[in-house]
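Protocol step 4 of 5: obtain the predicted structure for the target chain.
Materials: sequence only (see below). No template structures provided, no constraints applied. The aim of this step is simply to have a reference model before the mutagenesis design in step 5. Sequence pasted as it appears in the construct record:
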Amino acid sequence: MIIKDVRTTLLSIPYLEQPAFMAGYDRPRELLVVEIETSSGIVGMGYLQPLLEGIRTIDACIHEMCKPKLLGRDATHIEGIWRDLYFGNHMAGRMGIVLFALSAIDVALWDALGKKAGLPLYRLWGAIGDEHVPVYGSGCYRGLGGDGMIEKARRYVSQGFEAIKMQVAHMHTPLQDLEHVRRMREALGDGIAIMIDVNQGWTADLSIQMGRKFEAYDIYWLEEPVPVDDIPGYLRVARALDLRVVGGENHYTRWDLRPFFGEPLIPILQPDFQRGGLTEMRKIAAVADTYGIRIAPHLFPELMVHVLASIPNGHTLEYMGWLDDLWVDPPLPVDGMMRVPERPGHGLAFKPEVLTECVMKG
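Step 4 output (structure tokens):
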């Protein structure tokens, strides 16, 4: 299991359904794929989808700052490698690009270890005993407008989902957002959970005002109501509202999330594996469980299904279908549930043509 090579591939692939979560968003799917090969020929694969700029910078970070620290190491020393990459690269930053690079490597190492052990990750970590994980339908984008969001939500409901997520703020006035939420509840009826994502678009004051109005429509959660660094604002909103206030996708590691543990008013955290990897995701879940906080990861259900099937405080997966067409035999939700793959490692493999025909140019 000695690491003999670290390779990366950058991919650019048009979306099958272009996201409309902000005005003018026209980027394709941009992915970074990292492969870690061991002396015995085992290859672990990790991947990232940053959504905005920076993918080439992450790639440079892997080759300049991480690869020299990996070659010749034992690939099973995942905890030690995580520590050395994190603390060894502090000078360049404890968040951002460095953590994205570390995360892709961490996923690849766990995949390699799972393949070596012949076990899917959730069994390697210690399964909770339920191979089916709840999933909600996300991607009812604000850019679709009121009618478009309702149409997307109805599509999810017709596929058996019992919960959907819609967006507010950024593109519409508070009055328009309130009308969109009212119409969504009217369209879906009382049996479907509705989550609302603000994407850091409001102040604490406005979040409280709007949250109180949303409560009339039995909203399941209000997500990222304020800017990511406004922890006092998060807590003020959570104290003021009866509905759940959630967040965490833009926080890095358990240290960045520590204020939410110090005063546990946020009942559900949504960490993104790209901001610390699978190693850190599991530590976040363990700390959160201490305070009765549940985990609903940000995106990537095909990978996060292993995490939720191996922790006692898993809640639900976020599904948009963004990458389904890129995988060989992807795990897919059926009636709002996703079964964990039983293939060794994370069980994911890009279609060969994706890795050859979709390489980023330049």
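Step 4 remarks: The domain at 3-118+351-357 is CATH 3.30.390.10 (Enolase-like; domain 1). The mean pLDDT is 97.
Proceed to step 5.
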